[in-house]
Amino acid sequence: MKNKKVVIIGNTSNARLAKYFFDIDSEYETSAFSVNEKYISETEFEGLPIKAFEDIEKTYPPSEYDAFVAVGYTNMNKVREDLYNQCKEKGYKLANYISSRCSYLSQFQPGDNCFILEDNTIQPFVKIGNNVVLWSGNHIGHDVKIEDHNFITSHVVVSGFVTIKRNCFLGVNATIRDGITIAPETLIAAGAIIMKDTEEKGVYLPARSTLFEKKSDEIKIS
Fold this sequence. Notes:
alpha/beta, UDP N-Acetylglucosamine Acyltransferase, domain 1, globular
């Protein structure tokens, strides 16, 4: 039953996916998209109007519509953070999307403008802040704290009692050991294994795979 209306901020693939998930798996009906006027090149996106963000509240007032900022991790999530703050200043309530196929076992509900997709496991005592993206298939261990404006991609394992500070990015298949702190604006690349506290604005890369000297048809696989 659709009993709420949402305006999606953005007009890229993230916004298209947000509309899809809100439409098929939430109480929200998507009413329009909105971006800054200089980025408007067409009047519609995904069959809905695109309106200038500068005065969106005149057409879609916050008293009747919620907003959702569907922007990725550009500039360590700061573009999404800025739009999030602007929506707040305009008076909008920020919607959440939490997949019905997510195992959300924590007794603490997340903040606002969160996008939590299918096959995430959120264990007990996890606390999730505002404007957090959890793409598909992550494991968030018990007693983890995820602060505001973070982006966790897919198949990331975050072990228990970890704290993830603001504006971090965790790449696909990253592994975070238990009891450590991921400092603000940490970038953890795909496949990295983090065993101790990170440095603020640190970039952590995994060891690269190397090309073996033999071809695959020269290797005997038993």
